[in-house]
Write a structure and sequence with these properties.
The chain has 298 residues and is an alpha/beta fold. It has a single domain (3-171, 197-224, 270-284), classed as Rossmann fold, CATH 3.40.50. Helix content is 38%, strand content 16%. The chain is built from 11 helices and 14 strands. Helix 3 (78-101) packs parallel to helix 4 and helix 7 (230-240) runs parallel beside helix 11.
Length: 298
């Protein structure tokens, strides 16, 4: 199995590469990527500028597409929202154009999406058949998935994993949360009643590989089997660190600090992994306590 990975230098991409043999990497910064990804074959690619080099797809069986501007990297100015959208939608469109141009096309495209697809849905249990939301991130996810699904018309099996909050060592959302919680300054966000669909990084990688080898096609919630509310998450993280969780952050303060991005932090998505479980995926970490215990060393 020869795989190509976009977004390979990110938190998820680096871990995915470690599970692949002879991977190919597409990167905006190929020299930096070569230092990070070891002996992978690296090609330069600007996702919004056009298709990647044809040589990068030669002999490739599976494409993992994770390229995209960080959603949580700062306030959502108009320019930043344009970059968030274009890096995903236009980038995926150009990637599929390169796949179409190949005489021998990859068998599978695993093209990332996010649980933001659903918008904020309160306590509703969200399987993959649930309707999309209508906010900015939901609209981006819909357009992102649409571009990836165009590869299905070319005879490529397409999987669009809707990824939740990824928990793992050395990066991701948890890295930003540890300092305040270690200092005893952690707590719920807003009311804390909104649902947080989390997944351990090892399970995310396992699910992606399982999807690439199984018969899964279409959307797949890449989340753990037991979503928790933000209040439950704050308590579990504080308990794992043996600290209190007594400093809630009011919703209005989040909106002042982060603007429109606060809507993502307060969104409620009670997503469940029906497709992956039905296809036989078995979780390494089914409970949040077990996941945090592994990440934080017991």
């Amino acid at each position: 199995m020869r795989a190509l990975v976009t977004g390979a230098t990110g938190f998820i991409g680096r871990r995915l590469l470690a599970s692949l043999e002879r991977p190919v990497v597409l990167s905006r910064r190929p020299e930096v990527a070569r230092q990070i990804v070891g002996n992978a074959e690296v090609f330069a690619w600007e996702p919004e500028s056009g298709p990647p080099p044809p040589a990068s797809l030669e002999g490739v069986d599976i494409v993992f597409n994770f390229a995209g501007e960080s959603v949580a990297g700062g306030r959502w100015t108009a320019q930043r929202k344009d970059r968030i959208r274009a890096s995903r939608v236009v980038g995926t469109r150009n990637l599929v154009a390169a796949i179409e141009a190949q005489k021998k096309r990859p068998r599978v495209l695993v093209s990332a999406s996010a649980v933001g697809y659903y918008g904020s849905r309160g306590d509703k249990v969200l399987q993959e058949s649930a309707a999309p939301g209508s906010d900015f991130l939901a609209e981006v996810c819909q357009a992102w998935e649409t571009e990836g699904q165009r590869a299905a018309q070319l005879g490529v099996r397409v999987v669009t994993p809707r990824i939740g909050l990824v928990l793992g060592k050395g990066g991701g959302a948890l890295a930003h949360l540890l300092t305040p919680f270690k200092l005893g300054l952690g707590g719920r966000l807003g009311s804390g009643r909104h649902w947080m669909p989390w997944i351990h990084l090892d399970d995310l990688i396992g699910m992606l590989l399982h999807a690439s080898k199984s018969g899964i096609s279409g959307p797949m919630n890449a989340v753990g089997p037991s979503p928790v509310t933000n209040r439950q998450f704050a308590r579990a993280l504080a308990a794992a660190l043996q600290r209190p969780a007594t400093f809630p952050v009011p919703a209005f303060a989040l909106r002042v600090m982060f603007g429109e991005l606060a809507s993502v932090l307060l969104a409620s998505q009670r997503a469940v992994p029906r497709v992956a479980v039905s296809a036989g995926y078995r979780f390494l970490y089914s409970s949040l306590d077990d996941a945090l215990g592994e990440i934080l060393g017991g």
